Amino acid sequence: MEQLITTIAKAIVDHPDEVKVNREEKKGEIVYTLSVHQDDIGKVIGKQGRIAKAIRTVVYAAASGKSMRVTLKIND
Amino acid sequence: MREITSTGQTVEDAVKKALKELNVEQEQVDIRIIDEGKKGLFGIFGQKPAIVHVKLKETSELTGALLKWNENTDLNPLDEAKNFLEQVIKEMGITASVDIKLEEKTAYFNIKGENLAILIGKRGQTLNSLQYLTQLVANKTSTDYVPIILDAENYREKRRETLTQLAVKLADKVVKTNKEFSLEPMPSFERKIIHSTLMEDERVQTYSVGTEPNRYVVIAPK
């Protein structure tokens, strides 16, 4: 799952080297936190959060078969 | 360069010159003859060159643009987009391949494989998200905008039929109740299906409300 989030983020930002994904387990839930270069935050969020929403939709679809709930946070 | 006016001793000459200049084949262009030219008396008096206007056809305009991208960088945006999409699908744990077809000015990406329901999602929302992200990747490497349509298991066509039937049904309901009806949010290309289905219907009007990605169609009595 980290790999999927990384692939998507790296493809749409200007500083792919600074894409980081952190994984944390909290009360039966997995929280992934995506961090990108300061100038790329808009690129992963988009107008009205449109890009963030698209990334989440894809990530949650991939996680739909898993037993644990998955959340994707974006560090801004 | 997408169109050019060229001259020559004969029409054939002028066309040949234009094709060479544009670096394309005759099938890829529309040719308009402006002047057929005159050979003139003894080849001296009253001689007039042939003039033609040669324009790249719509489809080859896209191909031309792609060729141009290839020249400028090693990255073809559609290849980039395809690699991206294949990688994402793989990392979602799904085995599938992607075919690209260019039609008019749109690139159609068809995902082929088994068990693609996860890629489509509820009302196509996963497919639409993948389409949006793929579009972003393509446009990052290119200056010209190429619309990308993603499809899997013929979902787009089925969805078109569903939306067309829904639109007709809802129009009847709106007329019967004389009350406007708001549909759920949809991406622009799906809203367009509703609008164009009801364009000819004299009893109702349609318009879109809200901002993306929550923009939705309203069907109202006229």
UniProtKB/TrEMBL annotation, chain A:
The record's Gene Ontology cellular component field reads: cytoplasm
Q: Name one GO biological process term.
A: cell wall organization
Cite the InterPro entries for this sequence.
Answer: KH_dom-like_a/b, KH_sf_prok-type, KhpA
Keywords attached to this Swiss-Prot or TrEMBL record, sorted alphabetically, are: Cell shape, Cell wall biogenesis/degradation, Chaperone, Cytoplasm, RNA-binding
Q: Where does it live in the cell?
A: Cytoplasm
Any single GO molecular-function term of the entry would be: RNA binding
Gene3D superfamilies on file: 3.30.300.20
Q: Which family does it belong to?
A: Belongs to the KhpA RNA-binding protein family.
Give the protein's biological function: A probable RNA chaperone. Forms a complex with KhpB which binds to cellular RNA and controls its expression. Plays a role in peptidoglycan (PG) homeostasis and cell length regulation.
Q: How does it assemble?
A: Forms a complex with KhpB.
Q: What is this protein called?
A: RNA-binding protein KhpA
Q: Which organism is it from?
A: Aeribacillus pallidus
Encoding gene (name): khpA
Automatic annotation (TrEMBL), chain B:
Q: What is its main location?
A: cytoplasm
Q: Where is this region: Jag_N domain?
A: 5-55
Q: In this record, what's one Pfam family?
A: KH_KhpA-B
**In which domain of life is the source organism classified?**
Bacteria
Per UniProt, the keywords (alphabetical) are: Cell shape, Cell wall biogenesis/degradation, Chaperone, Cytoplasm, RNA-binding
Q: Which residues form the signal peptide?
A: none
Q: What does this chain do? A: A probable RNA chaperone. Forms a complex with KhpA which binds to cellular RNA and controls its expression. Plays a role in peptidoglycan (PG) homeostasis and cell length regulation.
Its assembly, as annotated, is: Forms a complex with KhpA.
The UniProt family comment states:
Belongs to the KhpB RNA-binding protein family.
Name the chain's protein: RNA-binding protein KhpB
Q: Which organism is it from?
A: Aeribacillus pallidus
Source organism phylogeny: Bacteria, Bacillati, Bacillota, Bacilli, Bacillales
| Encoding gene per record | khpB
